[in-house]
Amino acid sequence: MLVDALQFVKPSRDRFEEWHDAGITAIHATVAIWEDSTETMREVGRWHRLLADHADLLREGRHADDIRGAEEEGRTAVILGFQNSSPFEDDLDLVGAFHQAGVRIAQLTYNTQNSAGAGCWEGEDAGLSRTYGINLIREMNNVGMVVDISHCNERTSLEAIEASERPVAVTHANPRAFVGEDVELALRNKSDTVLKKAAESGGVVGLSMYPRIAPDGVRCSVDRFCDMVAYTAELIGVEHVGLGSDYYAGQGDEELHWWRQGRWSRKPMVPISGPVEFPAWYAAGRGYALVRERLRERGFTAAEVARIAGGNWVDLFDDGFTPAAQH
Q1: For the chain, how big is the Rg over CA atoms in Å?
Q2: Handedness of CA 229, 235, 238, 243 (dihedral sign)
Q3: Which of 149, 213, 268, 316 is most buried by its number of CB atoms within 10 A?
Q4: Do 85 and 103 form a contact (C-beta atoms < 8 A)?
């Protein structure tokens, strides 16, 4: 089983075939970053159509059992998620509505401040909103939607972990202490404190080879990536480590600028270089086989590698996607 806990590729038959060729059992696919509820529902509807049109390769991932079923069938389960809470438009009733539509994961913030809390580009004086932010987490816990803190700042991350009655996810980020401050988006990575607290909550951390947050940046090798896996497993326990590439193949410059600045900025608040290529060894996900091989060579057991490759995410989703009334 292989679970990639975050991709934002431009959906197409070519991408779905890449997932199949890489043996990816489940993908958490982004359907919104800055969009409002109507725009997001259009994207959810488009994904429903894609799932039907490419049913030989895909199936919807509403439950952990859908991932297990995808593994048996040789298909990829697609889990719909948000990289921001903007689609909820500060309306708690929309949380349940989107859950009914199939959305199972949502980040509280992208990079900036919103009604829920502060993103990683903000200072540490702002954290989780004591009104909307806390109640949003409660509603997500209630309906069965996993709280994702990948782009939150330190304070919001810690306060969200404390507020959530269920395990939180870091679907795509790396340990800042290991990676260092020299990579382009060092602010995106998580402190050891956040990683430990997330693990204590029962959560999982998806490690990424995205060059702007990966060790050695664009020069990140598979061995260096595995060094990071080993570091994180030692820090928080192998049962809390997973994968989350943040791969975005097929997206153009216009989309990249949209992600960086949203609706209300003339330019990105944090300057970022142009598009970067993922390391050649990643090979659109086929490199995950190499990661597993190198981890075994380092002394990880087959069971531990299976956990990192996807088992830990499935365990979290088993509970996290289930409404509280059925919990």
Answers
A1: 18
A2: negative
A3: 149
A4: no
Q: In which residue ranges of the chain is pLDDT below 70? A: 250-271, 327
* 190 vs 149: CA distance, rounded Å: 10
State the CATH number of the domain containing residue 62: 3.20.20.140
Q: Where are the alpha helices (DSSP H) in 23-153?
A: 37-53, 64-73, 93-101, 132-143
Residue 249's pLDDT is what?
Answer: 75
Q: Based on the structure, what is the number of domains in the chain? A: 1
Q: Which pLDDT does position 252 carry in this prediction?
A: 61
- Diameter of the chain measured on Cα atoms: 50
Cβ 135 vs Cβ 94: under 8 Å: no
DSSP annotation of 34 reads: S
Residue 40: per-residue pLDDT: 97
For position 262, what pLDDT does the model report?
63
Predicted local distance difference test score (pLDDT) of residue 259 = 58
Rounded to an integer, what distance in angstroms lies between the CA atom of residue 247 and that of residue 252?
13
Q: Residue 276 has what pLDDT?
A: 84
Whole-angstrom Cα distance, residue 72 to residue 79? Answer: 17
Question: 169-170 and 204-207: which strand pairing?
Answer: parallel
170, 195 contact by CB (below 8 A): yes
pLDDT at residue 1 in the model = 97
Q: Amino acid identity of 257? A: H
Residue 29's H or E segment, with its range, is strand 26-32
For residue 191, the model assigns a pLDDT of 98
Mean pLDDT score across all residues of the chain: 94
241 phi, psi to nearest 5 deg: -110, 135
